[in-house]
């Protein structure tokens, strides 16, 4: 019987390299699969933010006088809009649009049930809880009006990146104007900023479609990783 | 057919509200006010102003017995914020038109003298720099029409 020759160093190296190569190939495939799985559908580009941003404590009041804080943004998905009741054009249009989205969501009652619409006033001088109570439910009886001191409002707007600016009351007649972000901010059930719908995306059918896409994706992920 | 047209024109002239009002070469087309929660102090009004005359016209003001004051504003998006800029006048070129639409130019109707409801008509008087005044009747519409400046989408 022939004696097997001892493996030369070259073969050992090649063997080691092949094993390494196989490991790398499997590893790469795993990474690519994960990336593809997490990749955002094109429809959500520019809307879903890359990493959902956890919100921190804030303290506001709803139109019924109850505390509205971070706990109220945990559990349901929340559409937030920042505006003021002396706003004739942008705010009624946006709230009407949000109402339209909620109307369209009626075809998915289980999703509608877990979604809330919130109007946060950036004009606490004129927008008391009582004022909001006669304004916000007009658009949808389930919508919640929220108010608080300037400082407390800033405590939330800063976190989501909503800007606002109150003009001086030059005519001293209480009819000053307020500039404000007119985006919808979508908060997930963990109280994280998940997506932002800028004004250019403001179409009832489109927002509903994108929101349902987000829900289908996240609900699927939750089933896989409970 | 001629009788029908005559009767139609006759009626249209008097029905006014929400249709076109033509005076001094100026036509105020489809003036409407968005219905708002009853307690609201400021409402938005929209319309298309057409100038069929041979020279430019400048609208310098508006009034309504239903409101304390009427102003013109333009919604602009600056620095990531929606903002309103007061406009003292609106120039409508000869043969041209200016549209006041959601998200763009609009009338700010301030301090209603009574509750405003969908279906109401609001008398409006528009003053021009040449001293003329044009009257129109705006219809108060419920806010389910959310078509924005760029046209909006019909439900499907």
The largest β sheet of chain A comes out as: 8 strands, mixed
Structural class of chain A: alpha+beta
Give, in order, the helices and strands of chain A. Answer: HEEEEHHEHEHEEEEH
Strand tally of chain B:
11
Quickly give the structural class of chain B. Answer: mainly beta
Cα-based radius of gyration of chain B, to the nearest Å = 16 Å
Low-confidence stretches of chain A: none
By DSSP (H or I, 4+ residues per run), the number of helices of chain B equals 1
Major beta sheet summary of chain B:
11 strands, mixed
Question: Please, how many helices of chain A?
Answer: 6
Q: How many strands appear in the DSSP assignment of chain A?
A: 10
Query: Fraction of residues of chain B in helices?
Result: under 10%
Could you tell me the strand content of chain A as a percent range? 15-25%
Helix content of chain A: 25-40%
Largest contact between chains: A-B, 31 and 34 residues
Q: Which shape of chain A, going by the Cα principal axes?
A: elongated
What separation lies between the terminal Cα atoms of chain B? 37 Å
Average pLDDT figure of chain A: 91
What does this structure look like?
The complex is a heterodimer of chains A (226) and B (156). The longest helix of chain A has 30 residues, at 9-38. Chain A has helices at 9-38, 90-104, 109-113, 129-133, 150-160, 204-224; strands at 48-54, 59-62, 67-69, 77-83, 115-121, 144-147, 164-166, 178-180, 184-187, 192-197. The mean pLDDT of chain A is 91. With 226 residues, chain A is α+β, with helices and mostly antiparallel strands. In chain A, the strands form 2 sheets. In chain A, strands 1-10-9-4-5-6-2-3 form an 8-stranded mixed β-sheet. In chain A, strands 7-8 form a two-stranded antiparallel ribbon. In chain A, α4 (129-133) links the parallel β5 and β6 (144-147). Chain A is built from 6 helices and 10 strands, in the order αββββααβαβαββββα. Chain B has 156 residues and is mainly β. Helix content of chain B is 9%, strand content 51%. In chain B, strands 1, 2, 3, 4, 5, 6, 7, 8, 9, 10 and 11 form an 11-stranded mixed β-sheet that branches. The longest helix of chain B has 14 residues, at 2-15. Chain B starts with a helix and ends in a 15-residue tail after the last strand. Mean pLDDT of chain B is 86; it is low at 146-156. The interface between A and B is medium-sized, with 31 and 34 residues.
